[in-house]
Specification:
Layout (H helix, E strand, L loop, with lengths): L2 E9 L29 H13 L2 E5 H10 L6 H8 L2 E4 L11 E4 L2 H11 L2 E5 L2 H9 L5 E7 L18 E4 L4 E2 L5 E8 L8
Parallel strand pairs: 1-5, 1-6, 2-3, 2-5, 3-4
Antiparallel strand pairs: 6-9, 7-9, 8-9
Helix pairs in contact: 1-3
Length: 197
């Protein structure tokens, strides 16, 4: 069975909103683009390596629309990788599936289980709502948190109240990059969090 990896850019206080810049959905968010000052060649190379391991993308509708507006036809390594793999869009609405090899999913729990039978490594980016559903359905194998040295004090959180209680263990030691970002990779464990009571 294949694996599902969640990739998220997150602040120290857990914010994931508008990390790459302002979008229509984030109009008025004061700190849009908060990740940009921390980029460097080494972390960029690691992102490219991760993208190239993926043989499918799973995206929420908003993230799909953002990616669809930017990535198709790009000649860099990420653009070519994203163009070639199947893209699955989790949406109950009617997304515009204009990016090549795109398919809509309306029942994430059932359909992602089927995708894991067909793909070796599925990656998802963005979309807190999608990530919450994936955790609730126990479909996440690994979380890759690109953690940025900034606190915003506002914005949508990766793990808001109501997130399914979940345990993890480190998949590898943390990796720090020259620009200040730290990559934390965690494997999901079965069962609820343990306590010492």
């Amino acid at each position: 069975m294949g694996e599902l990896h969640v990739n998220m850019n997150v602040t120290l206080d857990g914010v994931i909103q508008a990390n790459g810049g302002p979008t229509e959905q984030d109009a008025g968010f004061e700190y849009a683009g908060w990740e940009r000052p921390y980029g460097d060649t080494e972390s960029g190379d690691r992102v490219v390596a991760d993208v190239q391991k993926s043989d499918a993308l799973l995206l929420g509708r908003t993230t799909y629309d953002i990616f669809r507006a930017y990535w198709p036809g790009r000649s860099d390594e990420i653009g070519r990788a994203f163009d070639r793999v199947p893209k699955y869009v989790a949406s109950r609405g009617t997304p515009e599936l204009s990016w090549a090899v795109s398919t809509q999913l309306t029942d994430v729990g059932a359909e992602v289980r089927d995708l894991r039978e067909r793909h070796e490594q599925i990656h998802t980016w963005g979309s807190a709502n999608l990530v919450q559903t994936l955790f609730r359905e126990a479909l996440v194998d690994q979380v890759n948190l690109w953690t940025y040295p900034v606190v915003l004090g506002q914005g949508k959180k990766l793990f808001p109240d109501g997130t399914a209680p979940t345990r993890f263990e480190p998949a590898e030691p943390p990796t720090s990059f020259p620009g200040g970002v730290t990559l934390l990779r965690y494997r999901r464990l079965d069962g609820p969090p343990e306590t010492t009571g």
